[in-house]
Amino acid sequence: MRSRKGPTLLPCPPFVVLLALGFTLLIGCDKKGSEDLNLVPVSGKVTVGKTPLPLGSVMYYPDSGKGNNGKRVPQGQIQPDGTYKLSTSSEAGVQEGAPPGWYRVAVTPTGASETNQTKARIPTYNLDYTFEKNTKLVVEVKPGGGNYDLVLTP
């Protein structure tokens, strides 16, 4: 019988094994495409004077003039009682909350759920609030988040 010999393996120095393991871990831990947005809960109520705004959208635009250079615009739908809760979109999907920092806040008056009945109850307000550049609403979202009520003037 003939003896069959397999390939001869040379001993591998330990640093080569550690190096290969390190590269494997780096590839597995690649965070490309994911973000750490550091979101905090943000909610509030939108009123025109003392009357709740029954529908619409709230958008928090990062205020670079006050040091917020973020690229995401947290936003939320206004509920029939005037309340809103912000969410932020990212590559990972939509997540509740907003990153801390200064924002210029815009409020748009209409929404997908608008009916003739709610349309009749929508109080009129200054349209400057609907544009990021014209709005007078400026909010600092604190690191712990919070409740940020927005009072619009007619």
Task: Report on the architecture of this protein.
- The protein has 154 residues and is an alpha+beta fold.
- It has one domain: Immunoglobulin-like, CATH 2.60.40.
- The protein contains 2 helices and 11 strands, in the order H-E-E-E-E-E-E-E-E-H-E-E-E.
- Strands 1, 2, 5, 10 and 11 form a 5-stranded mixed beta sheet that branches.
- The longest helix has 15 residues, at 14-28.
- The model is unreliable at 15-34 (pLDDT under 50).
Q: Keywords, please?
A:
154 residues, alpha+beta, Immunoglobulin-like, five-stranded mixed β-sheet, 31% strand, globular
Number of domains: 1
Named CATH architecture: Sandwich
How many helices does DSSP assign? 2
Average pLDDT across residues? Answer: 80
DSSP, total strands: 11
Regions with pLDDT < 50 over 5+ consecutive residues?
15-34
Kindly provide the radius of gyration, computed on alpha-carbon positions and rounded to a whole number of angstroms.
Answer: 26 Å
Q: Share of helix among residues?
A: 10-25%
The amount of beta strand, in percent, is: 25-35%
Q: Major sheet, described briefly?
A: 5 strands, mixed
- CATH names the topology as Immunoglobulin-like
User: What is the H-and-E element order?
Assistant: HEEEEEEEEHEEE
